[in-house]
What we know:
single chain, mainly alpha, three-stranded antiparallel sheet, 9% strand, rod-shaped
Amino acid sequence: MENPEPLPGPPEPPLQHPLPPEPYPRAGAGIWTAGARISWVAGLVLMLSSFTDWYAGSGEGLTIGVIGWHTGALGKLVFFLGFAIIVLAILREAGIELPPAIPESLVVIAIGALATIFVLVRLISIPDKFLPADGRGIGIWIALVAAIAVIFAGLLRAGEEL
């Protein structure tokens, strides 16, 4: 006669291992990550800096101030580059992302570098038609800091993507 199989007993509980604590806290998601936050704030400041005075001076009893928008095509391009950073942030929050072959951090760095070059051109070379306004206003310095901050934000985003 064969030995009957033993009756099944209660099932063994699965081994439960406690999850190890995370070594570092995870960064927030969406627009509240550091790189994204700096990116859209710097883009907004860059965009608005086109409406601040880039050149100032006085001549014949007049004080002259020239805003960035009126400095020619470069002043307008600085505005639109800042606007492009804002649009990127809005599209990302809406769930629309760039193709994976084009990292968003690279686009932000490229826009920041282009804006920095445009502002530096206007910082170094004052157009002749603004000659009584031969000094630099606070707005051009704000634009330069904002353009460099866009590059910095892009580098932070590249670190966050890794």
